[in-house]
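May I ask for a protein sequence together with how it folds?
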Amino acid sequence: MKILFSGPRYHANYNGMIQGLEDAGHEVHFLSLFDDFKYAKSDKTGLHHNKSFIKVPMINFGFYKRRFPPNWQYIPNPFALKKIIREINPDLIIARDLGYQTVCLKFISMIFKTKFLLYSLWHFETDYKEFSIFNRFLLATVFRSQNKITPVFTSNYPNKTPMRNKKMHAFYFPVINVEKRPTKNVEKVKFLCVSKLDHQRKNLKTLIDSILPLILDNRATLHIIGSVKDKNSPIYKDLHKVAESTEGISIEENLPYQTCISRYKEFDFFVLSALVEPLGYSILEAWSAGLPVLIADDGGLSGQVLVGKTGFVFKSNDKEDLVEKLYYIANHPEMIPEMSKKSLEIVEQNYQPHIFEKRLMQIYEKLG
């Protein structure tokens, strides 16, 4: 069948979904308002290339462009969208997040009677308070009876998640396999963090302050891999200053994606200090490499951590709890090999591309 994905841009976390669909013989198209698809079309994804990438034309306001708010300058051309949908003739449209492009596609899908799914990394029920007033309005009107899918759920098992809306479908987010960490005993714990280096929300200063005593005591190391756009950011500068003056803290920046995921196997434990992380795809990459994780309890995947088996969860904005969890891990390195084994097991059981494809087809068959 033909499946059309729509999103702001193509991201590496789509790789597992696309692979699962392509391996099952589906024809995949990807629609974006902003992306030039340099990454998606490259050999860095490791995927097949029988899908098409389409950049959506925007409305040209011409001379009057300056009179409109900035967001209005990026409105997709609905007539061009309609033409694209007519030419592709998809069996299913999956549109990510609430926005002008998704609203247009929703109405166009109604014209062509095409099955439609709204997809978000935010849970539509439990994270409803995080949505803007405009998005809440859309959910209450245009998308009130819309079937929705999300990889974020509050239970370790999607079918046990309490949901008032039966049109809400939770599924495990698929991850492409990462090189595995070798099974070995651990003495000094090597922590890995993958994060943006210039964002306040990533909370890296708190992480470094929390782990620093363990590093100075030669009981742990911290390696941070991340992207940075603003090298003049005070957050980025402070981070580098600490790394340069502290043995045991190191940073790599702006690595190619394949290089980044190849590094996971060199470490023992993954830590993500970010606050209100909608999903945190790096968590799945860590599990796929055999690294247990330490993440905040307000993250999208916190409900999927098997505490003490595949990782630990600390209370968001609670530095003392983060310190306590870091010390516990450093004091019990003997548990890491077994936790590593369990992490690999849950990836094999739940987060494989073919499992996502099967779940999506089950949802598709139930769509009106």
